[in-house]
């Protein structure tokens, strides 16, 4: 009988279009393994919201495996150590997994490959980092030419179907899912997240099918916080419950501008992975010089007003669109993309607080917190990235709120303002501002002038 084959699972928690499962199933009986790894050096431990999602995603995958009379083996510890031990214990012929590009996973892959036979496959992105290069053969650092090259290269995908699985004669022991302690308990703050989301492949596919019915309006609706115009696929994609190839393929019959825009956003995920492949510490280190030493009101300069950072985190800035976004994030583990840009810009440019404070907060509170995308997005807004918006382009949250018709969105997440009119709710006049709602931390004009002055002083 063929030797058992271990499938090493990380952010690829699906059976369809999962090359590691397919290759393992072709080679022998399959042992699917997930290792909760908080110990590999440099590993960024998952944030609280992502851990909540992971618990339910693992449960969903285990249910899917049950249809094949298979099951998920759970362990915790340093992944390379655990997997090497399992190979020795089970007599497995090889470990199969999907490539991951975070620096700690690349190190874990190298470590494991030195100890046992390891086969890695591509599958979490449209194309592997470095596959699409400039005419000179260099990796792209700017998104627009990368996007155009990707559109030229991609002509469709052969999406892999679920494999038929056979089981080993003996299963290794598994930890209980509850013993991984992924869910919050003291207190359990996840009620709003549970109401907003259903993790798992089946829920993701159902959600995406609904989205396809309105994708033609996506170009406009994606910018309207009060509308359900987003696909909300980001956490499903991040945890690998669906692959971007599956979504690209499902959209093949749609030719609208909205469909092209959505595909561009799938390409942005690939672009972020290309950046961390080139610059592994990109989510932690500014790409451009000067900002860190001369611009931010940081703790090491003695100027960071902790209360301002906390007000931003808690949705108490006095700017309704910012506060609605930050409260949506805390309640549901997700924030509308347009509002993410507004909230990030406010922290960086209105408050002059280092972008890394925001990146870390999003890492802990987003169900879709992704090392590459999160860092790439924050450096884009801050103007510090290899491809970024100019710092001097400062978003005006009050006019953005009105332009994108965020009144109902504000009413939902800032109930103190629920009775205000559409005209007043974006920027409540002082005489109408409810006592329970805070005044602005800083006026927009004052903040803009301060940010520009600080920027020009840094450049001089």
Automatic annotation (TrEMBL):
Keywords: Chromophore, FAD, Flavoprotein, Lyase. One of its GO terms (biological process) is response to light stimulus. The record marks 296, 355, 378 as: Electron transfer via tryptophanyl radical. Its cofactor is FAD; (6R)-5,10-methylene-5,6,7,8-tetrahydrofolate. It holds the Pfam family FAD_binding_7. Binds 1 FAD per subunit. Residues 3-126 form the Photolyase/cryptochrome alpha/beta domain. One of its GO terms (molecular function) is DNA binding. InterPro entries: Crypto/Photolyase_FAD-like_sf (IPR036134), Crypto/Photolyase_N_sf (IPR036155), Cryptochr/Photolyase_FAD-bd (IPR005101), Cryptochrome/DNA_photolyase_1 (IPR002081), DNA_photolyase_1_CS_C (IPR018394), DNA_photolyase_N (IPR006050), Rossmann-like_a/b/a_fold (IPR014729). Signal peptide: none annotated. Belongs to the DNA photolyase family. PANTHER family: CRYPTOCHROME, CRYPTOCHROME CIRCADIAN CLOCK 5 ISOFORM X1. This is Deoxyribodipyrimidine photo-lyase. The lineage of its organism: Bacteria, Pseudomonadati, Pseudomonadota, Alphaproteobacteria, Sphingomonadales.
């Amino acid at each position: 009988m063929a030797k058992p084959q271990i499938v090493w699972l990380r952010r690829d928690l699906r059976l369809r279009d999962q090359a590691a499962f397919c290759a393992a199933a072709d080679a022998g009986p399959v042992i699917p393994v997930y290792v909760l790894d908080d110990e590999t050096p440099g590993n960024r431990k998952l944030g609280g919201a992502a851990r909540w999602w992971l618990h339910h995603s693992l449960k969903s995958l285990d249910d899917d495996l049950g249809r094949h009379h298979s099951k998920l083996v759970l362990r915790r510890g340093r992944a390379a150590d655990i997997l090497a031990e399992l190979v020795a214990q089970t007599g497995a012929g090889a470990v199969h997994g999907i490539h991951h590009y975070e620096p700690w996973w690349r190190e874990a892959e190298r470590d494991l490959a030195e100890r046992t036979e390891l086969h890695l496959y591509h599958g979490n992105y449209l194309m592997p980092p470095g596959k699409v290069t400039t005419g000179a053969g260099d990796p792209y650092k700017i998104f627009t030419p990368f996007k155009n090259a990707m559109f030229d290269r991609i002509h469709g995908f052969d999406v892999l179907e679920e494999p038929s699985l056979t089981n080993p004669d003996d299963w290794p022991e598994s930890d209980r899912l509850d013993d991984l302690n992924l869910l919050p308990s003291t207190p359990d703050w996840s009620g709003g997240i549970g109401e907003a989301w259903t993790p798992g492949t089946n829920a993701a596919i159902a959600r995406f099918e609904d989205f396809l019915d309105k994708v033609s309006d996506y170009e406009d609706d994606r910018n309207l916080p009060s509308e359900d115009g987003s696909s909300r696929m980001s956490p499903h994609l991040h945890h690998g419950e669906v692959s971007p190839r599956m979504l690209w393929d499902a959209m093949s019959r749609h030719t609208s501008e909205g469909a092209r825009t959505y595909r561009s956003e799938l390409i942005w995920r690939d672009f972020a992975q290309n950046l961390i492949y080139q610059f592994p510490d990109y989510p932690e280190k500014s790409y451009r010089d000067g900002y860190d030493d001369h611009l931010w009101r940081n703790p090491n300069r003695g100027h960071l007003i902790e209360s301002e950072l906390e007000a931003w985190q808690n949705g108490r800035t006095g700017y309704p669109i910012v506060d609605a976004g930050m409260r949506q994030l805390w309640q549901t583990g997700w924030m509308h993309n347009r509002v993410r840009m507004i909230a990030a810009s406010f922290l960086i440019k209105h408050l002059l607080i280092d972008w890394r404070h925001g990146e870390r907060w999003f890492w802990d509170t987003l169900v879709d917190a992704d090392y590459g995308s999160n860092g790439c997005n924050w450096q884009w807004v801050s103007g510090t990235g290899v491809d970024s918006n100019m710092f001097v382009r400062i978003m005006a949250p009050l006019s953005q709120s009105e332009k994108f018709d965020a009144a109902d969105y504000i009413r939902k997440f800032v109930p103190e303002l629920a009775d205000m009119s559409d005209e007043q709710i974006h920027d409540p006049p002082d005489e109408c501002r409810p006592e329970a709602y805070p005044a602005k931390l800083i006026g927009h004009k004052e903040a803009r002038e301060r940010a520009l002055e600080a920027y020009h002083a840094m450049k001089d």
